[in-house]
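User: Hi! I have a protein structure encoded as tokens and I'd like to know what sequence might fold into it. I'm fairly new to this, so please keep things simple.
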């Protein structure tokens, strides 16, 4: 289905910052892209157990560093990472059977770091899932890494 990917473009958002029904559109698990639905968004907001998570520049730096450390520890190649105030992008090459493991591990270790260094009481740092795009060619890998490094904005931690 996905061939033999040479890397993965991973994206996930912080808790509460892109809810089902969002005015920008949203992705429903196993059903794909959905149009805005204000009622559904209000219902999702009502179910939130904490405020939406907006990461500070210091938290973002800590997430970037932890992702690099986790990839090095696992023997994965990190081509690019960019933690923003409300989402994370990472481009990784890893010999895994299921690329969800990469995302799960990166989110878990980033959570541990954020809890230890910034807020041990917060339970929800990230949305439940995220996106995994398969990168099958050198051009795909290069384009994804370039986007992650340079396609966000000019100030890395603002």
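Assistant: Happy to help. Inverse folding works backwards from shape to sequence: for each of the 158 positions I chose a residue that suits the local structure. Here it is:
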């Amino acid at each position: 289905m996905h061939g033999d990917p040479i890397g993965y473009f991973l994206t996930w958002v912080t808790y509460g910052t892109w809810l089902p029904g969002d005015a920008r559109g949203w992705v429903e698990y196993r059903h794909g892209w959905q149009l805005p639905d204000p009622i559904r968004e209000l219902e999702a907001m009502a179910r939130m157990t904490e405020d939406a998570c907006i990461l500070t520049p210091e938290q973002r730096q800590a997430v970037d560093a932890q992702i690099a450390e986790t990839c090095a520890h696992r023997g994965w190649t990190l081509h690019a990472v960019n933690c923003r105030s409300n989402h994370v992008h990472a481009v990784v090459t890893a010999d895994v059977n299921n690329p969800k493991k990469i995302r799960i591990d990166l989110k878990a270790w980033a959570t541990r770091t954020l809890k230890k260094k910034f807020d041990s009481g917060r339970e929800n740092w990230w949305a439940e899932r995220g996106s995994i795009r398969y990168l099958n060619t050198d051009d795909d890998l290069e384009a994804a890494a370039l986007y992650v490094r340079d396609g966000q904005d000019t100030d890395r931690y603002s």
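A useful reference point when you look it over: The mean pLDDT is 88. Feel free to ask if any position seems puzzling.
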